[in-house]
Amino acid sequence: IDENSPRYFIIDCSSIAYVDYMGAKALAETATDQEKRGVTVYLTAVKPNVRAVLDAQGRHFSEECIFPTLHDALSIAERNESTAENAVKGPAVEPTE
């Protein structure tokens, strides 16, 4: 993944009141395509009936990828991004010998 490419793709499902099989399939394919590119996919505000259709369609989104609000998903993505940047940069203080 290019360093300028997005690392997170957040889908706000708050306005999705209903999804049929084809809609669930399109959502699942979008998520799978992003994941193949190394992008983490988060869903927010997924209604129980929408989640049930996604699960029945065969694309199970783990609990770690579903958040109650967009703010929650953004906070976790930012925290994970900060942690990853710190891991790449190494320790902030040089070790003493």
Automatic annotation (TrEMBL):
Gene3D superfamilies, A to Z: STAS domain
Alphabetical list of CDD domains matching this protein: STAS_SulP_like_sulfate_transporter
Chain ranges of the STAS domain: 1-77
GO biological process terms, semicolon-separated: transmembrane transport
Cellular component annotations (GO), alphabetically ordered: membrane
Pfam family, one: STAS
Family annotation (InterPro entries): SLC26A/SulP_fam (IPR001902), STAS_dom (IPR002645), STAS_dom_sf (IPR036513)
This protein's name: STAS domain-containing protein
Species in which this protein is naturally found: Pristionchus entomophagus
